[in-house]
Amino acid sequence: MKIGIDKIGFATAQYVLNMDDLANSRSVDPEKFSTGLLLQALSIAPVTDDIVTLGASAAQKILTQADKENIDMVIVATESGIDQSKAAAVYIHQLLGIQPFARSIEMKEACYSATAALDYAKLHIGKNPDSKVLVIASDIAKYGIGTPGESTQGAGSVAMLLTKDPAIMVLHDQSLALTRDIMDFWRPNYSVTPYVNGMYSTKQYLDMLKTSWDEYQKRFNKSLADFAAFCFHIPFPKLALKGFNKILDKQLPEAVKEKLKDNFQHSILYSQQIGNIYTGSLFLGLLSLLENSTSLQEGDQIAMFSYGSGAVAEIFTGTLAKGFKKQLLKGQSRLQELKKRTVLSVTDYEKMFFEEAQIDENGHASFDNYKTGPFALKEILGHQRIYRKVAANGE
Ligand code: HMG
After folding, report:
1. N or C: which end of the chain has fewer CB within 10 A?
2. Which residue's C-alpha comes closest to atom 1 of ligand 1?
3. pLDDT mean for each 10 residues of the chain (395 residues)
4. Catalytic site includes residue 79
5. Residue 295 in contact with residue 262, Cβ under 8 Å?
6. Residue 137 pairs with which residues in a beta bridge?
7. Does residue 198 line the site of ligand 1, with CB under 6 A?
8. Quick check: CB of 78 below 6 Å from ligand 1?
9. Residue ranges of the domains in the chain?
10. Among protein residues, the one whose CA lies closest to atom 34 of ligand 1
11. CB-ligand 1 contact for 142 (6 Å cutoff)
12. How many CB atoms lie within 10 A of CB 70?
């Protein structure tokens, strides 16, 4: 049975910080961010947006009523959990109005877990061919003011509907995972921002890419020439580019190399405007590729490198389905959408991104009315998060 991605949607925050403004404020040469990291802007989420509102918003854009009646599993992959116990997927299941006889869970392993979620979804559909599974990768990447990671923050969600006979991409059975117990990036329960060994993390990312790709090729007798594009986890686009250059086979025919290079550029377009969205970054790269490449054709194979600090990596692959373009937006309209975000000054970004809910002795907190997508965190009442649907006029 062919199983894979039938629909893919995306949502990000309604506010944006331009990298040049951040560079000027931190007395950094703007070229360091634009050329050194290949970043132009970062999405900034207010306190009324979280993994639930962003995830529900990404999914709402793609789901029909018939989908909601057939989804029997909702998986949220995240490392920005809002509760140690209750899964964000349960809130999202309710906000979207998915039929009740469903399993709703959360999965975690830094930026990697959405890849495991896709595999679990695939196994589930293998046993229950009429099921549809909603996989949402949702995160807010926050490193802290003035930290080396500050320039690689971001916020966003990618929602994917997994079905049999999918309209976008059939996922292959062959994949190769790799685990290493390392401390490159981690966030203990008592900290709202991660601890990061930045340079070490980039070395591990590149080494785990090389190790897993070498083993994948050996085990499955594949090479780069089998693929029309290679998508990477994108903590910042320059590191993905380094990864791409590391595996680029210099023996490949020039035309194949050029196509792969061209498609790599298409895959980083959205991340350059949004920053790191952790679990969703690889899939934002895939979406960017699919919506912007003009050379991709049905039947083309795509390779993907998933990486989550700590660390787990995986190489997995898929084949583009017949008519896949019909399921997707045009790249230009997605980029136009991103231009509608409200530009923040650095002072306003510092206030907004790091605002914490002020919970009183009764477990209540209320919030200013920031711009969000179709869902917002309204208040906290008796330690319970209360979400609301936002009307089209933002009320
Ligand atoms: P930094 O201080 O920006 O490092 O920190 P840098 O001094 O190496 O500068 C970056 C690049 O800018 C370099 O390019 C410089 O040469 C260049 P490169 O040499 O590497 O090609 N540069 C300039 N270019 C033009 N004009 C200039 C100029 N100045 C410098 N004037 C660091 C970089 C990655 C350490 C930092 O951003 C960080 O800590 N980020 C967070 C951690 C991270 O993203 N790690 C990536 C791998 S781990 C991962 O992917 C997992 C993750 O997503 C989390 C998860 O799994 O949950 C993070």
Report:
1. C
2. 148
3. 98 98 98 98 98 98 98 98 98 98 98 98 98 99 97 98 98 98 98 97 98 98 97 98 96 95 98 98 98 98 98 98 95 96 98 96 96 98 97 75
4. yes
5. yes
6. 77, 158
7. yes
8. no
9. 3-169+332-389, 171-322
10. 198
11. no
12. 17
Is-contact 52 384, C-beta < 8 A? no
pTM above 0.85, yes or no: yes
Token representation of residue 157: 């969600």
Kindly report the number of other CB atoms within 10 A of residue 84's CB atom: 6
- Ligand 1 binding pocket includes 205 (Cβ within 6 Å): yes
Task: Quickly name the fold that domain 3-169+332-389 has.
Answer: Peroxisomal Thiolase; Chain A, domain 1 (3.40.47)
CA of 346 to the centre of ligand 1 (A): 20
C-beta separation of 228 from 294 below 8 A = no
Q: Tell me how crowded residue 200 is: count the other CB atoms within 10 A of its CB.
A: 13
Identify the CATH assignment for 171-322 out of 3.40.1280.10, 1.10.240.10, 3.40.47.10, 3.90.78.10.
Answer: 3.40.47.10
Six-digit token string for 270: 């959205």
- Residue 61 is assigned to a ligand binding site: no
Instruction: Count other C-beta atoms under 10 Å from residue 309's C-beta.
Output: 25
Of 93, 124, 233, 266, the active-site residue reads: 233
